[in-house]
Design brief:
disordered N terminus, 14 helices, mainly alpha
Length: 306
């Protein structure tokens, strides 16, 4: 752990870097900031300003074996905007191919299932954060991150079908794979604008976001497999001798999502990523997965508020 002084709190509004800071000073301040965040979440403190508490209440309720559908409906129904989001998601083309409309919250929750209810709740949370005046300065990068997360989630769902991993669990993992980046981004608001937009800081984020994301999800009580997958997302050399795991699905999906950003025909560089062989994917398989995911993306973005 870095022996760095505590960074100013989100609420203090103080600057940790002088306006004329040199690149080395900027990097040093950024490392102190990220080290402080890592220390906080490792110690069990997750402070995410403007994140709706109801999302975690739903998470805790769904994780409780004694919870009933009626209790979930009561929690969701206490927040009309979230209830509307769940109904919209359940009625979307992505999750309701039959087109038969749902009007009851209980039926919508039952149809979606636990993992997709949490996915819809996370979509509600991100939209809520984007609308907050205090986070207006990062509304655009938040939107970009959420769009990327939906793309990774869509691909995870398809890739999971080539493994024993549950597609809905893979979808939620893909949706949450960038939670560390979101956490850093939100906590950086009001702190040292001089380094928040620096390229060196963005590079540092990529090195810290997976471990911070894992710690955040652990604190929120998500399954160990999901937490480990988020931590492993950049470990392309990761090798596994047994059946493909959630980590393999996420690694492959992130790489495929990157290729999806390029003009067609999409070229997938599988070099150096053992997860492709662990799952048993060929170039043709990857091409088919991308085609399928592309067809789903529009309806998913509509459903999840991209």
């Amino acid at each position: 752990m870095l022996n760095a002084p505590a960074a100013p709190t989100y609420k203090s509004g103080k600057k940790s870097v002088a306006p004329a800071a040199s690149p080395d000073e900027v990097r040093g301040a950024a490392l102190q900031f990220l080290g402080q965040l890592a220390a906080e979440v490792s110690a069990g403190t997750v402070d995410l300003p403007c994140f709706p508490n109801i999302v975690l209440r739903i998470r805790n309720a769904l994780a409780d074996p004694k919870n009933t559908p009626e209790q979930t409906v009561k929690i969701v129904g206490a927040e009309p905007r979230l209830a509307a989001r769940l109904l919209q998601t359940a009625n979307s083309a992505a999750f309701n191919p039959s087109g038969k409309p749902l009007t009851e919250l209980r039926t919508a929750i039952t149809r979606l299932g636990h993992q997709l209810v949490q996915s819809a709740a996370m979509a509600f949370a991100v939209q809520h954060m984007k609308d907050e005046d205090s986070l207006r300065s990062i509304a655009e990068p938040l939107s970009a991150l959420w769009k990327e997360s939906i793309s990774v989630a869509a691909i995870c769902q398809v890739v999971a079908k080539h493994t024993k991993v549950t597609p809905d669990e893979a979808f939620l993992t893909g949706l949450l794979h960038g939670i560390g980046r979101l956490y850093i981004m939100v906590r950086a608001v009001g702190k040292a604008d001089e380094f928040r937009h620096q390229e060196s800081f963005l590079d540092l984020i990529s090195g810290w976001q997976a471990s911070i994301g894992k710690a955040v999800l652990e604190n929120w009580g998500f399954a160990e497999e999901m937490c480990e997958a988020v931590a492993d997302q950049g470990d392309y050399e990761r090798k596994h001798k047994h059946d493909a795991e959630l980590s393999d699905v996420l690694i492959v999906s992130i790489m495929l999502a990157e290729s999806l950003k390029m003009p067609a025909p999409h070229v997938v560089d599988m070099e150096g990523a053992a997860a492709f062989s662990t799952i048993g994917l060929s170039e043709k398989d990857c091409s088919t997965i991308l085609t399928h995911a592309e067809l789903q993306l529009g309806s998913l973005q509509d459903a999840l508020g991209c």
